[in-house]
Design goal:
Largest sheet: 5 strands, antiparallel
Helix content: 25-40%
Low-confidence stretches: 1-97
CATH class of the largest domain: Alpha Beta
Number of domains: 2
Mean pLDDT: 77
Number of helices: 9
Number of strands: 12
Shape: globular
CATH superfamily of the largest domain: Glycoside hydrolase/deacetylase
Order of helices and strands: HEEEEEEHEHHEHHEHEHEHE
Length: about 325
């Protein structure tokens, strides 16, 4: 599992010139014993034309099997705190009437994340289906006023429709994840069609922000274990689900959304919500202030897993 996690960890090195560039599964890996773990420097291929450079240490507790990762320069938000990948969590909106976790979510695998085991009092607010031309800017104003970061899982065809909002999301320190191009029920798709939906969205995000997404959330949570493992192997993208679902997509009202999030959140929680719902955006002041009042901090999904901030990663086109 350590090897699987290490493939995903990305960190910004001091100089590109001093950085070994090895292709995992092609040129092998460089292993250096350090602090009881395995240090690997590598070039990570996110998709066919994108390559990332990284340096990360990974240790595994032999008694529990829980993996812990940390960046060598310890600039990561959780600096040396544990990053344990749990299970899954996706979301439905167009093809299916219900958003739900996959039925095989209880079967743990390195390709799927539902929450993060961490000693730090952090939670991850995530917002799906945007950007929305009116609601997303309002939400960004709320987050900016409080100095908070979140993760936005964007739909590709909306990225190209409102690129200025996408650019603002990235510029203000938030992470952008891949949520497919058209928001279909991917469980019904062939691998070729799944990768087409995801690659097209990654390209769109890259063209607008200068960096590709490094995590994926499937529409409706409809993504089988076989598909999650396929995506992880083909694009090195983990599937990010959630541990708190306020069911805001059912439009229960702002106060209900806020109460459900506050009730279900604990350290390491990944919170599902949708910034295309006006009730969700109206619920955010009570939600954000309520979680902060309990001593909880906010981090992006990458930060929660011990990876560096998305904006600090170095991306370049593969030669």
């Amino acid at each position: 599992m350590c090897g699987a996690l290490a493939r995903q960890a990305l960190s910004k090195t001091k100089s590109e010139e001093n950085e070994p560039r090895l292709s995992i599964g092609v040129s092998g890996e460089t292993r250096i014993a350090r602090s009881g773990g395995t240090c690997r420097k590598f070039s990570l291929r996110i998709k066919p034309l994108l390559r990332l450079h990284a340096s990360v240490c990974c240790t595994v507790n032999p008694a529990t099997g829980v993996a812990h990762m940390f960046e060598l320069n310890r600039r990561t938000f959780l600096s040396a705190s544990g990053a344990a990948l749990a299970c899954t969590h996706p979301f439905e909106a167009l093809a299916a009437p219900v958003i739900a976790l996959p039925k095989d979510v209880a079967q743990r695998d390195a390709a799927t994340v539902m929450a993060v085991r961490t000693p730090s009092p952090v939670v991850g607010m995530t917002f799906d289906d945007g950007p929305h031309p009116k609601l997303t800017p309002i939400l960004l104003d709320m987050l900016k006023a409080r100095g908070l970061r979140a993760t936005f899982y964007l739909i590709g065809n909306r990225v190209v429709t409102w690129p200025d909002i996408v650019r603002r999301i990235a510029d203000e320190g938030h992470e952008i994840g891949n949520h497919s191009w058209t928001h279909p029920n991917l469980a019904r798709y062939s691998d070729k069609k799944v990768l087409s939906e995801i690659d097209r969205t990654s390209d769109a995000i890259f063209k607008v922000t200068g960096r590709p997404p490094v995590t994926f959330r499937p529409p409706y949570g409809s993504f089988t274990k076989r598909q999650r493992l396929m995506l992880y192997e083909a694009r090195n993208l983990p599937t990010i689900l959630w541990s708190v679902d306020p069911q805001d997509w059912r439009r229960p009202g702002a106060s209900v959304v806020a109460k459900r999030i506050l009730k279900g959140s604990k350290p390491g929680a990944i919170i599902l919500s949708h910034d295309i719902q006006s009730g969700t955006v109206k619920a955010m002041p009570q939600t954000l202030d309520g979680l902060s009042g309990r001593g909880l901090k906010f981090a992006t999904v990458s930060q929660m897993m011990g990876w560096p901030l998305w904006q600090s990663r170095r991306f370049r086109r593969a030669g």
